[in-house]
Design a protein that fits this description.
Elements: H1 2-21, H2 24-33, H3 39-61, H4 67-90, H5 93-112, H6 121-138, H7 142-151, H8 156-182, H9 186-212, H10 215-238
Family: Belongs to the 4-toluene sulfonate uptake permease (TSUP) (TC 2.A.102) family.
Transmembrane segments: 43-61, 73-93, 99-117, 164-188, 194-213, 220-238
Membrane topology: Multi-pass membrane protein
Amino acid sequence: MGTVFIFILIILVASILQTSTGFGFSILATPFLLLIFEPKEAIQINLILSLVISLALIVKIRSDIDGGVVRRFIWGSLPGLLLGIGIFVLLKINLLKVTVSLVILLLTILLILNFRIRKSKTRDGITGGLAGTLTTSIGMPGPPLLLYFSGTNSTKERLRATTLAFYLFIYLASLLVQVSVAGTNAIIWTSSLYALPIVAVGLFLGQLLFNVINQKMFRIFTYVLLLFTSIYLLLESLN
């Protein structure tokens, strides 16, 4: 019962964050799902549910999507998808999590210190490549996208819509790559099915939260989430 409660709590909170920010599900869910599932199971459950959330939200917010950025993200992510699955197969999961946590921590500190990034087509492609690599390797495309958008002072509406549009591609492609290379099992699909009602509640509550937070609150919330995730990943991996 304790494991079931933890699973419900993880999915609910992560769904609320994904709906209200456009990036929270994978960043929050993946580290905690790794506590109760095998790496392959945790990553694929995350990919399935994140894809469902993106599909549920995209029609309503499509007018805020930056189509050019999404296309460059997709093209940049293609080599990253292959690199990420290679990392997943060859590296120990703890080493990967330590590396990811340190990168997120460093870049978050830079953002808090008012570090800014100038948008360009090349940087769009690089960001997509990093997101693709992190998606197939650890199921977490959010950090490079969030850091890039935050560093370029994008509005919360544009950030949420553009990342969700990119997620439709990257989650589906990553899931297909993961299943083809690492295989899948019944636990992944039954757990995802049981989580759907919880996701629906999270979608409703997350939209309410999005409507009440302003740009300043959104930015502070972003920094807190990134710092928490990076520190948690690091400590959990070292232990």
